Amino acid sequence: MFKFIKFFSLFIFMGLVIDGCGFEQKMEKPEEQVNFYKEGLSIFEAKEDGTIKGGYRKKDKIIFFDTHRGNKTAFQDEVTPPYEIDVMFRNAKGEKFSVLVGGHDFQNPAWKETWLYNEVTPEERATEFQLANEAGEALKNKNFHMGLEWEKKALVNLALSVKKEDIQVSSDIVKKSNLIASSGYSYQHVLEIWKKSCCINGLTGAEHSATWNKSYYVTPYKKTLLQQIITSNHGASANQSTMSLGCRRYFPNRTRSLPQIATCGTTPGNWVNHSGCFYGCCNSNYGILSGNHVCNDDSRLQKDVMIAGGMNFCVSYCSDSIPAKTAPGCY
Fold first, then answer.
1. How many structural domains comprise the chain?
2. What residues does 141 pair with on adjacent strands?
3. Inter-helix orientation angle 149-159/122-140, to 10°
4. Has residue 193 been placed in a domain?
5. N or C: lower Cβ tally within 10 Å for the chain?
6. How do residues 213-227 score in pLDDT, each as one tens digit?
7. Cut 0.90: pTM above it
8. Number of H helices, E strands in the chain
9. How far is CA 260 from CA 37, 189, 257, 328, in A?
10. pLDDT score, position 264
């Protein structure tokens, strides 16, 4: 009897994965302990409040993913969720390598922490993105509680958003894509502003916009995607099917892997509103009334922070007297 109790206690302590809706894995063991997780897709937690937590293991490699539901979405259509959804893929070290931001900030304050500069090899990161892709394919066939359909779609769309050619590219394509490699290596950032027509009361010809921000590791021989941050800016995310590419801009020879984008949770130094200035994120209220901001202000600031490369500066357009009704350009 004593042996049975001892064995049962060990089983509970290990927190083995129970693959199914509504069950949570007790994570007493560090996530680096890959052997404590089963092969393939595991769902640790799925709650009707919009929380999905899980992982995907292949041999000695594993990645983890989370979703979090936030505020109501300002403008919804057939592919835009009725609320802002954050999604994060991270590796066993806790490094976030693929992120979707539903608003202009992480809804879960804990996600602002440990926003690390990635210290992995290109080969390791390519493997992690490939695992995310496989997780996305597996999630397509996974059934969740009623009410988690939008979180599932956001997970799958983010997981499948990376193309194979983005993970590893030959030097010829690197040159053609205007990402010129140095004699050694460097980080290359890419800003994309995506947009679509939308309806704002009293404004004709209005647009919604969001950004797709990428960081590549570039050598003379290959280009490997290290991180991506996709924003939604209170509406459709940049990777949704109703959005079209407005512009793209390259930033070669950067010294950091993290894209310098203007979400309140990812901006270096935790810049905040101070004396009427907005350092790094538009944390004024969202809306078209004077003193508020709209999605195009978020996109503009995300662009400006990317251009500045992390330099501290002050802007005033996050509290518009007249709302910015069209998407900004990349320059």
1. 1
2. none
3. 140
4. yes
5. N
6. 998 888 776 778 889
7. no
8. 6, 12
9. 34, 9, 9, 17
10. 63
What does the longest C-alpha to C-alpha distance in the chain come to?
A: 75
State both tokens at 223.
């280009």
The pair of three-digit structure tokens given for residue 325, joined into one six-digit string = 């009704």
Q: Which two tokens stand for residue 175?
A: 């040159």
- DSSP element (H, E) containing 68: strand 61-72
Confirm whether 327 is domain-assigned. Answer: no
- Each residue of 82-118: pLDDT tens digit? 999 999 999 998 888 999 999 877 877 777 665 555 6
pLDDT digits over 31-55, tens only? 568 888 999 999 999 999 999 999 9
Distance CA 207, CA 197 (A): 4
Q: Give the domain extent around 32.
A: 23-308
Q: Can you tell me whether residue 179 is helix, strand or coil?
A: coil
Q: Which of 17-26, 109-118, 188-197 has the highest mean pLDDT?
A: 188-197
Model confidence band, residue 203 (pLDDT cutoffs 50, 70, 90):
low
Q: Report the 10 Å Cβ neighbour count for 3.
A: 7
- Domain assignment present for residue 157? The answer is yes
Phi-psi group of 111: left, alpha or beta (phi > 0 → left; psi -120 to 50 → alpha; rest → beta)? alpha
The structure tokens 């944390």 sit at 283
Q: Does 37 reside within a domain? A: yes
